[in-house]
Model the fold of this input.
Amino acid sequence: MKSIAAGIFGLSLVASSLAYAEPVKIGVITTLSGGGAGLGIDMRDAFTLAMKQAGNEEIELVIEDDAQKPELAVQIAEKMIQSDKVDLMTGIIWSNLAMAVVPNVVAQDIIYLSPNAGPSALAGANCNPNYFNVAYQNDNFHEAMGQYASENYKKTFILAPNYPAGKDSLTGFKRFYKGELAGELYTQVGQTDYAAEIAQIRASGADSVFFFLPGGMGIAFMKQYAQSGVGIPVMGPSFSFSQDVLPAVGDAALGVKNSASWSKDLDNEANKKFVEAFQAEYGRLPSIYAAQSWDTANLILSALSKASVKDKEAFRAALKEADFASVRGDFEFNTNNHPIQDIYIREVIKEGDVLTNKIVATAFEDHKDAYAEQCQMQ
Amino acid sequence: MSAALLLEQLLNGLQLGVMLFLMAAGLTLIFGVMGLINLAHGSLYMVGAFACAMIASATGSFWIGLAASLVAAAAAGAIVEVLVIRRLYQRDHLDQVLATFALILIFSEGTRWLFGSFPLYLDIPPLLQGAVPLPGGGQYQLYRLAVIGVGVVVAAGLYLLISRTRLGMRIRAGESDREMIAALGVDISTLYTVVFALGAALAGLAGALVGALQSVQVGMGEPVLILAFVVIVIGGIGSIKGALFGAVLVGVVDTMGRFLLPQALSLMLPASQANLVGAALASMLIYIVMALILAIRPSGLFSAQS
Done:
């Protein structure tokens, strides 16, 4: 029932004109209600804004709310394919939802472009020509943080939620981290109280903490950690310190190092335009989810200008060229349709009254994921 | 494993239990007196947290925010009771579930409409910032200790209210025989509104206290609501004493399970697997405990009806 109400609420049709004047229907399944809604709303807002700016009236968006529930996302995907007859799909934020939806969608020869989730299971042996990940492979940001931790700390305590992206996170971190682990914990998805975990961090004798807790989970963790008196430095991927959560975390986040492929201060034309447009339209700073979603929209637009979406073969080739101005600067697809991109270390700073991030170092240049070799697709 | 860590975890369990008690007390009171299953109790918790965050950021004082949370949740509770809930007492439980579920949707979307989808900021008041030393060399967050204190005060206050006052007498009478106390001339509909508002205020208080610790966002009430239902089922529906024991039991079992199970399993399994299996088992643990208790005592530990 919640889903129906939210679905009707979230169902908006946006019309937008391009070289191929044929109707194109894009299905967007994302999280617009519940604790993870901030991420999905940034995704949706950036995507619709990019489409609006393109002004292509032949593009129709079908947007629905998955409420961060895998079973609901599967139903919506089925409905979008069967009755809406969408040509392309995108939007899913969470890896457990992506795992439930994507294999089924691409098997029905629908092209899916991921604006966020990049589970390892879809990057390696199970890669698919219909699946493009415009964001990252899940491990990437965590690998950068593992590299950073090796250079700065000796005994790190690591924790992440118990779901595909959480496992990818700690795997990615450990792949590049050379020091000793003070402890490793999996928490529940959606958990809001971290007292028990913080007590274990305190007792572990760690010299630093690495955590991956996106959305409301990270807010709760940071606030509780700051009050606990543990006091050892924390770090994490950008998801725990992105623009959607920083205002709620407050000053507790100041100075924290985090890793990302994008930052609002990244110096390129496309990014300046994007940050300006987003702020003008919505009156807030964009998060990394908005940036990735903006790139996804522009990738789709670039491919539409080259090929008909009905000619799958040609359209896939057009997507693969990645001939668009990414807000992340250099961007290309690896053999497994996952990005090759730079990953940066950012620091949380205060600009006036607003908490935001700035880039302080480059962790990796043209970083590829570890699973591409297992992908048989050419 | 040090004694300090164990003590800290016990306190964590107690603190979780106390929060659950604030939720469960209202839920069980409403069920006990009016026979109503109120799924929208979690929404009142959210109302409390949002009221506190909004007033605290407007006035700069957490304490005024806390008072506002009590007032806002009690007012929301009273309004909902008069407009909607009152029509449901004679209906069966399925109608009540349906109507109060609709209330969840209305509250959630209404809050989203007013405040947006992004979490609000609510910080711990300066007086309760930081950590205090524990015996054994550990440290514990002062705010959590204060939350435990609030829970103890509320439990004692409820006990006095129910056993020593006229209102309490009517509540007890309402629990044992609804028709009879109406026949005796007690204004039953006012009593119902007062009980509902009291339960709502407790939920609002819990929301505000937890909001400062976690995050204030739409949908924050539903996960707590599920645990609160587990608590009242374990404690015996309608019993405040049961709610208190159930809440502390659930709080301590859940916290200790999350902490000890992965460690216990790591004696048998490789570390990363023990972690995953332990975490999965820990999330089931309170439901297993509930099933066991119901198998032995089908109406809960302290059932009011029996």
